[in-house]
Amino acid sequence: MQFTSLVFFLFFSVFFAVYWWILGKNFKAQNIFLLAANYVFYAYWDWRFLILLIGSSVIIYFLGLKIAENDSRRKLWVNLGLIFSIGTLLYFKYFNFFIESFTDLFGIKNNLTLKIILPLGISFYTFRMISYLIDIKNNKLKAETDALAFFNYISFFPSMTSGPIDKGGLLLPQLKKERVFTLENGSDAARQILFGAFKKLVVSNSIAPITQNIFQNYEHLSGSTVAFGAILFLFQMYADFSGYSDMAIGIAKLLGFKTTKNFAFPLFAQNIADYWRKWHISLTSWLTEYVFTPLVIAFRDYDKKGLMLAVFLNFVIIGFWHGANWTFIVYGALQGLYYVPLVVNNQINKKKKLSKTIPTFKELGNMVYTMALVCFALVLFVAPGLKEAFGMYGKIFSFSLFSIPQFIKIKILGLIGIIVLIDWINKDQEHGLDIKRFHPVIRRALYVFLIFLIMYYGVFSNGSFIYEQF
């Protein structure tokens, strides 16, 4: 059930009306209705995997209670929960990858590959489960005794398909208190959803056929066209994923919930570390807390070399999280290597506020350089295998790089320019269409303009989001 589909519009309209107008004064009843909606939303994709979601929630709920007892078997319960959560993810997402890699390495005939369907949102809800158990173990969170609140936390439908990855400390307390709908929050949510829909339906979906054509036929195209495809894919993926996040956060806001911010205008990043602080924030902050920080502590005796190793391993995990393919592992490793100069020059944590109006030449140069690094790595992200990725790199670094690229369309460049301009104007705000500070006439004109673009240029045939596959 895609956020941009008519089915979801009807589903959410009915749900919203009942949630606020009939159950608005009873948050317990709202929670029961919300849980039912979560499960309907999930079952619409495949009801069989709803059993896995509910079963996993039951197991983690009771393990959380056992960990909270703080007895001699506390470590055992934590490890069992981690083994179950990670093991389930490894089986569904990586089993065939491990088998195929092992058999290819030793030249063994492979009879073990299975037809495994990847459950919707498993990477996202598994990370919620893992952080929940670890936070209880580290006394950062109390074990949840309210089963209804906990089951809603794991299956929360706005964040199910592609995140954000909310931690229990943020969402669980909100599920246990009365929620109030205000016109201010509702208006802000509507703005965020509108901009998310524009990014997805107009920008991402308009670019998708072009990049698909380029990457599927790269062998017959010039290096400049393949490089242009990588640049376009950056904007396609940004519009697609940040568009989903805007809609997810806005939908949650309409229900009275504050969820994790997932993007902070990464197109204006000044270096690769700044980019990852602004891109898929819920994932990078999750891995920073539960993977990178423990690695830094473990390697602290090795000074900068230890920090480099921690960064490298963290990004290999980020790459592998994205998919069971060597291209994603190399993608993550390349991101880790990008950090080496920053670590050497002690710039990994340096932050700088951007100019208010027009970027300086230095800021603009940093943006272009950082996005060039990102686009170079994205070739690995889109390639079906390493052979194809190296073929694309071979094209890019050929003499045909200096030719005029194909598939340049003024409409596409104009739509990208609209996103960049709106993002730049609101780069210090909570989201791209956070324009409540503007005059009402300006605001309404922009709303009408975006709605017009959605109705006139929107591509409604492609409702899937890129990050659903992860």
Keywords:
single chain, 470 residues, 2 domains, 17 helices
Structure explained in plain terms:
With 470 residues, the chain is an all-alpha fold. It folds into two domains: 6-180, no CATH class; 184-270 and 352-469, no CATH class. The protein is 68% helix and 0% strand. It has helices at 6-22, 27-68, 74-106, 122-137, 147-155, 168-175, 183-216, 223-254, 272-278, 281-298, 303-322, 326-338, 340-344, 361-382, 386-396, 410-425, 440-457. Helix 8 (223-254) packs across helix 15 (386-396). The radius of gyration is 23 Å and the shape is globular. The mean pLDDT is 93.
Task: Give a short summary of the structure.
The protein is mainly alpha-helical and 470 residues long.
**Topology order in helix (H) and strand (E) letters:** HHHHHHHHHHHHHHHHH
The N- and C-terminal alpha carbons lie at a distance of: 16 Å
| Class derived from helix and strand content | mainly alpha
Helical stretch tally: 17
Give the tally of β-strands.
0
Helix content: 55-70%
Low-confidence stretches: none
What is the averaged pLDDT score?
93
Count of discrete structural domains: 2
Q: Note the main sheet.
A: none
The proportion of strand residues reads under 5%
